Each structure stands twice: as C-alpha cells, then as structure tokens.
Amino acid sequence: MEPYSLTATQAVAKFKDGSLTVENYAKSLLSRIDQRDSAVKGWVYLDRDYVIEQARALDRIPHANRGPLHGVGVAVKDVIYTKDMPTQFNSPIYEGDAPKVDAASITILRQAGALILGKTTTTEFASTLRGGPTCNPHDLKRTPGGSSSGSGAVVGDLQAPIALGTQTGGSTIRPASFNGIYALKPTWNSISREGQKMYSLILDTIGFFARSVEDLELLVDVFALEDDESPPQEPFSVKRAKFAVLKSPMWSQAGPGTVAAMEVGAKLLRDHGAEVEEIELPAEFDKMQEWHETVMHSDGRPTFLPEYQVAKDKLQAFLVGHVENEKRLTRAEQLKAFDGIAALRPRIDEIAGKYTAIITPSVRDVAPLGLDSTGSAVFNSMWTGLHTPVVNIPGFKGEDGMPIGLSLVAPRYRDRHLLAASKAVGDIWEQKGGWKRTV
Amino acid sequence: MEPYSLTATQAVAKFKDGSLTVENYAKSLLSRIDQRDSAVKGWVYLDRDYVIEQARALDRIPHANRGPLHGVGVAVKDVIYTKDMPTQFNSPIYEGDAPKVDAASITILRQAGALILGKTTTTEFASTLRGGPTCNPHDLKRTPGGSSSGSGAVVGDLQAPIALGTQTGGSTIRPASFNGIYALKPTWNSISREGQKMYSLILDTIGFFARSVEDLELLVDVFALEDDESPPQEPFSVKRAKFAVLKSPMWSQAGPGTVAAMEVGAKLLRDHGAEVEEIELPAEFDKMQEWHETVMHSDGRPTFLPEYQVAKDKLQAFLVGHVENEKRLTRAEQLKAFDGIAALRPRIDEIAGKYTAIITPSVRDVAPLGLDSTGSAVFNSMWTGLHTPVVNIPGFKGEDGMPIGLSLVAPRYRDRHLLAASKAVGDIWEQKGGWKRTV
Q1: Tens digit of each residue's pLDDT (9 = 90 or more) over B183-223
Q2: Using N-to-C axis directions, what is the helix angle for B213-222 and B8-17, rounded to 10°?
Q3: In B, which residues are within 8 Å of A340 by CB distance?
Q4: Contact B413 A107 (CB under 8 A)
Q5: Do B99 and A111 touch (CB under 8 A)?
Q6: Which of A72, A137, A284, B310 gets the highest tally of CB atoms within 10 A of its CB?
C-alpha cells in the first residue's frame, strides 16, 4: 500500500510506531500529485520543496511533543487564509495576494501537527457555480462539484487524506458525493470561521473531506467539538437503531442514481436490523429553498460591495447582481426569510431528534458531464440554513459507475453522535452499496 | 476654527471648495494628537509621516475623481485589519502582527477617499471589560468605555472626526455616551464584518463614531445602506412624530444621570410637539440579558480556541473561561438562547415599527471613575442581540458635568429613517439637554 493512499488515521498510526516518516509520506503524496495533477487539476498552489521542508521539521519533533494530527497532509480550499501561501479566492482581484495570516482552522490544524500541503481550487469566492479547471478523478469529463472543487477532487484522488472546504449552499456535501468520499458539514459556528472568506454569515460553514469517518472524528477531536452527552463508548450498532428516510421537498429533482441509492441504502439498513421510517416535513419547510436563496442573495449585497467598488469588471455577473440587488429583494422579504429559517431550526431539531439520523439525498445524481457547472445544491441548502450537521456517506453507484452518496442529518450539536452512527452506516453502504473505489 | 475640530461633513465641504488641503487638515489633526495623546492615550498605532504622505497623495487626485469621503480622517479600532498598519487586538499573542489585508470596511473607506489615520485601543479582542490605558477626554480619571475605547475617546477629543468600532455587547454605544458623541450601530450584517476579529458571529456588529448625524449619514451612503423606502426628502420634524420611551428590563440599574436624561429627553421632545408614549416590553424580553450572555459565552468557545491552543497563558482568564466552558453551558441552553433571541427579532420590529424610534438608555450613567473597567453593557446587549439599529445621541449632563447620551432604536433595516429622526432629535437634545462640549 502506497503511503499516499492511507487515511489520516492510518498514517498517524504509522508515524507513531515509527514505520513511516512524515518526509517519506509527504514524498509519496507529492509523487501521487505529480502523477495525477495534470489530469485532475485540483491545486492552485503547492510548493513541493516547502512541503518537504515542513515534513522534515515535523519529523524532528520528539514523539512526546507531537500533536494528534502529526504529519497528516491537509489540502485547503483557497478561500481560507494561510500565512505561508497565497489566498486568491479564484478572483482576478486577489491574484497573487498572500497576506500573512492563518484562518482559525489553520492555526488549530498546525497546532495539532498537520502538514498543510497547499491550496485547492474553488469557484469564485466559493459563491458561484462556474466550474473549471478541476476534473472529477473518477471521470475526467465530469465536474468534481463545487464550490470546494479541488478539495473534493484531491481527497477522492488520493492526493491528500484530508481537505478543508466550506458550504453556503451545498459546497461540501455535493463534491463529497461526486468524488466518492466522506464529508462533514458540522453544526454552524461550532468551529470558528475566522479567516474564511465570507459569503453569507448565517449560512457559511466550514467543511471537512476525508476517506473515512475515523478521520472526521480525528478532526472534530482537534476542533474540540462536543455534544451535550458523549456518544456511548461501544461502537454504534445499526441493529435496532431508528432512521428516518426523507425524500425532501426537492424530491422531484432526484435522478435515477439518487432514487436507487435511497432505496438500496434504506434496504441495507433494514437488512441489518434497523428500523427505517419514511417521513415528510411539515409544509412550512417547503419555503426553505426559496428562503435560503433570498438570504444568500441579500447577504451577498454587503459582502461583495468592496470588490464591486474596487473592480466591478473583475467580478462575475452573478455577484455583481447580488450587490446591485438584481432580484429586487426588499428588506421585508430578506427578514421574512431570515426569521423564517430561524424559526424552523428548533423544529427540525425536534423532528430529527426522534431518530439516529435522517437519511436524505446529497445530490440530484452522479456528477454531471462537463466542467462548466459544478452542479446543483438543491438537496443541501435546506440543511445549511437549518445549521444541522450533515455527513455525506459514499457507497452507491450511478450512471457509468460513478459514485453517489447519501446525507445523514442530525439535530444541531449532535455532530459526535452523527459521526458515531455514520461509521456503522458507512461500513454497510461502502461494503454493499455497489460502488468500489477504483482510482 | 481649527481644522481638527471640523466634522467630516464640514471638512469635505472645505476640500471641495478648495479652502483646505488634506495635507493641512492632516497636520492639524496630528497637532491635536501631539497635544493630547499623552493624556488621552487613544492610539495604539499612528505613523505621522505616513499620514502626511497619504494626505499628499489624496491632494494630488483631481477633483473629478475624488470619493465622497475624500480626505476625511478615520481612526480604526485595532480589531479591524488594515493592510498598511499592525493589527494586534490588544493581545500579546498578536504583538507586532501586521498581515497585509484590509477589512471590507477599510477597503470601502479607502475607495471612498478616506484618510486612514491609525489604530485605536480596544479591550483584549474587543471581548473583555478590562480597560486602560485610554482615558476619557472629558475627565482623565474616568474610563472612555469599551471595548472601542480609543475610537470613542479620539472622536470625543477632536483627534479624529470619524472612528470605526465594533459592538458585541455595548462596545460602540457605551463609549459614545461616555465621550459625548454620536454613534451608529447599524442593523446586524447590513455592512460587511469581513476582516473584523470575531467574538460572536450572531452578535458582532461594526459601529461608527462621529460628532454629527450628517457624518453618520455620509458613512452609510458610502456603505450603500438602504431601507426599503428612502426617508422623505424634507428634513424630519419632531412635531407630531411619535416616540416610545422604554425604560427596559434593566431599569433598576439606571443611575441618576440616566434617569434624569430620560426625563429631560422625553420632555424636550414633547415640548417640540412630539407624542411620547411610555411602553413596556412583553415579559419574554426579560430573558434577553441572560440569553445574550449565554450566546456570547458559548460563541467564545470556538472563537478563542486557536489562541487558547497557541498560548493559553497569554489569554485573559475571562476568555480562557469561554473556551473551557467555565459556566458549564449546555448545547441545549445555548440553542434555547440562540433561538429565543431569533424569535424576538420580528417581535421587536413590530413593536418598534409603531414609532419613529424607541428612546432607551445608552448606559447606566456617566463614565465611571477609574480605568480598570470599561463599564457595563446592560442597556445595550439586548439591542445587539435583536440586530436593530441604534444611535447614541449626546446632549445630557450627569455627575461632574460629564456627558451622557440616550439610545434611539428602530426596526431592522430602518437605519436611514432612524438617522433622519436622530438628526432632529439630536439638534434639540444637544441644544437644550444641558451638556456642552468643552474639550
């Protein structure tokens, strides 16, 4: 097994028992990147010599002083500040910009010993659907999703075990599904977003990509994320657990891949002794999609005003439209949407709290052909607005053998419980869902 | 009249008619600062040569290309990034730190032609009550308030016409009252907080200090802040306007200065033909103070985790307490507070929407003696949580001739209407409220 294909948890074990140095691990990752980057194009910045230098410095740290993420390679979406690398937001306005400041998430990762590898592609300001140049590693003719395009692609392609993304609509969960990997969108504001470029304050959430739930747990440990009660010590068993299947108000947009995954996923859990109940949300949730869009567009108005004033011509028309309030959204409409979503948060906590998790689509279907658009967030934006934690679990197969995942959703601040359940569910779906990693 | 004593609006007029150059204006401000800074101590960073250099560059811009804030001196609270000056948060962890990045607010101000003078004192991360070294210009033995200590003091002391602050509890409105000046805490998220150090996402709001309402209007113009309908063109008249007087659930904490100001303020408006009605809030608002505190402390937990991990020993005990969840707040309590406040926002909009503005205390009383504590935010934190715009209007006199102000509050996104009313109210209170500026 090449070191580059290790999960973070596996790599950490090898650093601990001395069977792998961070330098050799880094070299393996770089060789994978050298081999694949010209096809996948997931990175916007990566300094090979600097990565090796950092790896060597980590190797010199005595075992007793090593952090929980010692040596783990992390790819960072290029909307998150890194003090030693450029941060450019895929915007010509910020070309070459490299302020010496670390985002809160980066400070915490470095403090835990992570090896920050480089910066990954994003759609402009993580705020548009316009894709490129990154390709889906499972089929280069398809989008890797967005806006965390590079982060999803490089983890799916074994070029990094962990990546940071963000989500305002579906920018973490969608690329996770398209690239056949796990992702966690944690409870809103449970992890500091300081130093992460803003789109909508009330929606933007950091996101983590990984190839195992253990790796996501390693991350939430480092970020000190705690539920009110810790999940039980013994491994979660699907047997006698109770899941809700929610087709969501957007179900008419689900393609055959997602329809099949929902059926297979539910059946597999039932076969393993779980109770799986189909639920529908009360009618007031039907507004969520519209409200989410209203909040996002309204919030984009002050957010992109600086760039608009400095260089309107270098800003995508979609974002110019936010600043100019192209949709003619009134303050009254904006507040109705903002307050309407707020009122539904305790409602969804109550509904989701009756189950281990809600199972719901992550995407319309497999990654669409073409790189121009990063796909649709219709199945994600409700959960972003509701602030609930969401885990994408891979395992299903759609058109042309492409991966497809499903979302598991829990009430706010039940992230640890959700991860514990995701591990058991993921084991089943990855083994029997029909999709096998081939890259 | 010395140029340093001009309001922004007055200075702009002089730049326009050619009777004052930005360079001479800057020199006048610097002479005022030279004369007073050793007493007031409001600045943490100010490079005199650089200010002059910037002023000269502004003078070279042809009239046709000048922005609406051309040449106006702006002081910036040191929790807001400026690419050409250090940003240190009054934290030993960030001593000497100077990342080359401008906050959104700074980009917009520069684009409008403002002359960024320097950085002003703040309590640690704008998140504690521990004061010093800044003194109140009206009595050096008293606090200027906080956390925007320097911004309030330098505007009150004629060292700058405009300053940027922030408010999470009462960090803008309180120092405005203590220093005898105007301030606007705009509707939450109506102006981008990008590049402003975070404490609590849902509470933190930028704040503006000035010595006239016209100056605040000049600023909200630049920040493109719009209500659903523009206020009427003709000047607002107090006559036949309808105000609510709200003593607030914290009234028992009001001192004699505030009690008198509320009486005098209401009487003056009645004398000018306004209808002034005393109101009380429904009982559910009694929880606001507790909920605000719960949200602030809970949000401080992820916010200060990076600093805690990097250098816990260099972090104030109060903030260490946030990260360690000293108050043992549960997620359930946190969410109850977060959702509870959210549910009250449309309620307060409805109540406040019946009036031109709600008149309510800005502070317990005049600035307390001593520099150790920056005073109490009990009369402000409710409005911060409710996201409403608040204007502090000076004009009243308390103990030892110290200034005292009152707050005018309007529904969310009625900032322009609130400012229009504040101008008329301020004219009356400044003329007849009993306090006259002497510095």
Answers
A1: 999 999 999 999 999 999 999 999 999 999 999 999 999 99
A2: 70
A3: none
A4: no
A5: no
A6: A72
- List the single residue in B227, B299, B345 with the smallest CB-CB distance to A339: B345
Using the 8-state DSSP alphabet, how is residue B142 labeled?
B
DSSP H helices, B180-285, are 213-222, 256-271
Residue A255 is which amino acid? G
Complex prediction ipTM: 0.98
Domains of chain B, by residue range, sit at 3-286+336-432
Determine the residue of chain A that is closest to B104 in CA distance.
A306
B77 is catalytic: yes
Q: pLDDT digits over B347-360, tens only?
A: 999 999 999 999 99
Minimum distance, in Å, between the CA of residue B229 and any CA atom of chain A: 9
Nearest to B138 by CA among B124, B121, B166, B158: B158
Superfamily of domain A6-286+336-432: Amidase signature (AS) domain (3.90.1300.10)
| Cβ within 8 Å, pair A343-B345 | no
Cα–Cα distance measured from residue A425 to residue A161, given in angstroms and rounded to the nearest whole number? 21
B262 CB-near residues (< 8 Å, 6+ apart): B245, B247, B254, B359, B361, B406
- If pLDDT is split at 50, 70 and 90, which confidence band does A417 have? very high
Q: Which two tokens stand for residue B193?
A: 């907080």
**Cα nearest neighbour of B198 on chain A:** A194
Dist. CA A231–CA A229, nearest whole Å: 6
Q: What is the pLDDT of residue B25?
A: 98
Alpha helices in A180-330 (DSSP H): 213-222, 256-271, 288-303, 305-311, 317-323
Going by CATH, does the domain composed of B3-286+336-432 fall within 3.40.190.10?
no
Q: What is the pLDDT of residues A281-320, one digit of tens each?
A: 999 999 999 999 999 999 999 999 999 999 999 999 999 9
Distance from B109 to chain A by nearest Cα, in Å?
9
Vertex B289 angle, CA A226 and B291, to 5°? 25
Does A439 score more than 90 pLDDT? no
Q: Are strands A73-77 and A242-246 parallel, antiparallel or unpaired?
A: unpaired
Backbone angles phi, psi at A76, to 5 degrees: -125, 125
Alpha-carbon gap: A263 to the closest alpha carbon of chain B (Å) = 34
Compute the 3-state secondary structure of chain B and give helix, strand, coil in percent, each to the nearest 5: 45, 15, 40
C-beta of residue B32 within 8 angstroms of C-beta of residue B158: yes
